[in-house]
Each structure stands twice: as structure tokens, then as C-alpha cells.
Amino acid sequence: MSLASGPGPGWLLFSFGMGLVSGSKCPNSCLCQAQEVNCTAMHLTEYPPDIPLNTRRLYLNNNRITSLPAMHLGLLSDLVYLDCHNNWIQEVMDYTFIGVFKLIYLDLSSNNLTSISPFSFSVLHNLVQLNLANNPCLLSLDKHTFANTSSLRYLDLRNTGLQTLDHAALHHLVVLQTLYLSGNPWKCNCSFMDLAIYLIVSHLDPPDDENATCVEPMELVGWPITRVGNPLRYMCLTHLDRQDYIFLLLIGFCIFAAGTVAAWLTGMCAVLYQNARRRSSEEEAEDEAGHRVEVAKRLFQNKEKSGQEGFPQLV
Ligand SMILES: *[C@@H]1O[C@H](CO)[C@@H](O)[C@H](O)[C@H]1NC(C)=O
Ligand SMILES: *[C@@H]1O[C@H](CO)[C@@H](O)[C@H](O)[C@H]1NC(C)=O
Ligand SMILES: *[C@@H]1O[C@H](CO)[C@@H](O)[C@H](O)[C@H]1NC(C)=O
Ligand SMILES: *[C@@H]1O[C@H](CO)[C@@H](O)[C@H](O)[C@H]1NC(C)=O
Ligand SMILES: *[C@@H]1O[C@H](CO)[C@@H](O)[C@H](O)[C@H]1NC(C)=O
User: Fold this and answer.
1) Ligand 5 pocket check: which of 208, 209, 225 to mutate, most ligand atoms within 8 Å of Cβ?
2) For an engineered disulfide with 123, which of 31, 83, 101, 104 has Cβ 3.0 to 4.6 Å away?
3) 289: Cα separation from own chain's centroid
């Protein structure tokens, strides 16, 4: 039945609306009772239609659903519990959960998640438990991902592809009690230091911390990430490379050379000054001696003169 030949778009819209509003329906392959819809292991390949609008708990686990349509999910404004574990969901978008803002429990574990948009969980202020475990293709999480999920008490990030995690991503999780981080290929380079130190100072104490270990670099392979804070601080803050040593050596040599030259110059100046002083005082002494000689000479000459000429005058 095509749109043109049918009863018209108005009717379609009406029936669609009626279908959505009529809360009594139940998806064919699911079990519905008391605001709970159970579609566990029903071989579903996509999100089932006709889910009652007043549903509070929805089980979609153990199927082959590849995506969660925000349009349909958003109609379930009373939903508090959503279990999607063990499906083929590949990505979560900014608007996927925009309508289910009352969600308390969300399980997305064992899916094919490759990306989670930074604002996917931004309206989930009531979310207490979030499971993202067993998504080996999930390689990164944005630091804003958990910015608004401040009620979160349980966060499971086991067995993903995460190599690193911005410590700022955890800052808003003020009531977090359980954090699982094991089974990830943690790359403990210098960028990892902030998270490692945050894990120490925040006293989060992941229950699986013995199994949350570094796979890189060579020196830290097998180290629990809760204990690499200090080695990293040493390696990244106080550790010096060969270039640094050469640089320091050069600086030291420059200081040494400059010191030597300065000492030499000072010595030279002192000697020159001393010499100059000695010479000038000698000259003065010489001068004085010469002057005395002159005076004596003059006196003598005067005497001679007076002796020669004055005497007869006196006589
Ligand atoms: C959902 O149904 C399956 C069987 O179809 C059952 O094993 C499972 O316990 C049910 N889950 C809940 C939460 O009732
Ligand atoms: C999801 O992962 C499973 C097993 O890891 C794989 O068999 C399946 O093909 C993947 N599906 C998609 C759509 O990538
Ligand atoms: C957090 O929620 C507020 C409003 O509730 C919104 O304006 C803001 O963009 C959200 N931030 C993030 C990082 O999701
Ligand atoms: C550390 O590893 C991460 C993940 O591979 C990378 O994004 C980052 O640039 C690396 N940082 C340094 C300082 O090498
Ligand atoms: C760590 O891994 C080992 C072997 O995989 C497992 O037996 C043990 O229960 C794990 N410990 C924790 C705390 O997860």
C-alpha cells in the first residue's frame, strides 16, 4: 500500500499515534507484565515496535539488535531500567537516551560499541549503574562522557579497547563506589600519569585492580594501574634522557668556563690595579723627591747668587 493510494498521510499519522498511545500492546515476541517488558533471547535483529509507553523495565538482552532508535526509545519516559547486554549495538549517539531521562540502570555490555558520543549520557542525571564492559572495539571515551551522570555509583569498563582515560572524565562521579577497569590494554605512558595519580588520591580502589594492568611500556608491563602513579611520576617528571644529561653537562661546562674567565679577569684587574697604584705612588714619591731636590737646588742657587752678588752689596 503506497502513500498515494491509501487513506492518506493524515490517517497514517493518526494510526501511528494511536499505536503509540495505546499502552496495552505488547511486542509479538516479548512478555509484558506490570510495566515490565521482557524480550530476552527472542532472536530480535532490531528494536521491537509496540512497547507499552508506561514501561519501566525493558529487557532487550541476548538478541542481535544493532541500534537503539532514539525516536522510539524516547517515548518511554518512565523507563528506569534498560538491559541491552549481549547485542550487536555499534554506537550510541548524543540523542539516543534523550527521552529516557529517568533511567537508573543501563547495561550496554557485550555489544559491538565502537563509539559513544560525548553527550550520550548528558541527560541521565539519575543513572546509578552503567555497564559498558566487553566492548572490545570501544577505543576511547571523551572526558565529557560522564559529566552529568553525577549519581553514578557503579561503572563497569572491563574488557574494552580503552588504552587510556582522561582523569577529568571521572571528576564528576562524586558518589562512585565501584569502578571496574581490568582487561583493558592500558598504555601507561606519561599521558597516563594523571589518571594513575587520580586513582591513588581518589581512593576509588577498583575491586579488580590486580587485573587492571599496563600492557605498555616495557618497564611497566603487568603493573596494576593503581600502582604506577609513582613510577610514572619518577619517569615523567624527574627522569632525564641522554640529551638532558648532555645539556646539563654543557650548562655545567659553560658555568665552569664563565667562572674561570671571571676569576681570571678579576685577578687581572686586581693585579693591574695594584700595579697602577704602586706606580702612581712611586711616581708621587719620585715627584716629591724631585721637588725637594729642585727646592734645594733653587735654595742653593739663591744662596750662591746671594753669595756672589749679595755679599758685596752687604759689604
Ligand atoms: C525474561 O524471560 C526469560 C525467558 O523468556 C527468563 O528466563 C528471564 O528470567 C526473564 N527475565 C525477567 C527479568 O523476568
Ligand atoms: C558484533 O560482534 C560479534 C562478535 O564479536 C560478531 O560476530 C558480529 O559480526 C558483530 N556484528 C557487527 C554488526 O559488527
Ligand atoms: C549537563 O546538563 C546540562 C543541563 O542539564 C547541559 O546544559 C549540559 O550541556 C550538560 N553537559 C554535558 C557535558 O553533558
Ligand atoms: C600515550 O598513549 C595514548 C594512547 O595511545 C596517546 O594518545 C598519547 O598521545 C600518548 N602520550 C604520550 C606522551 O606519548
Ligand atoms: C583476575 O584475573 C584472574 C585470572 O583471569 C581471575 O581468576 C581473578 O578472579 C581476577 N581477579 C579479580 C579481582 O577480578
Assistant:
1) 208
2) 101
3) 85
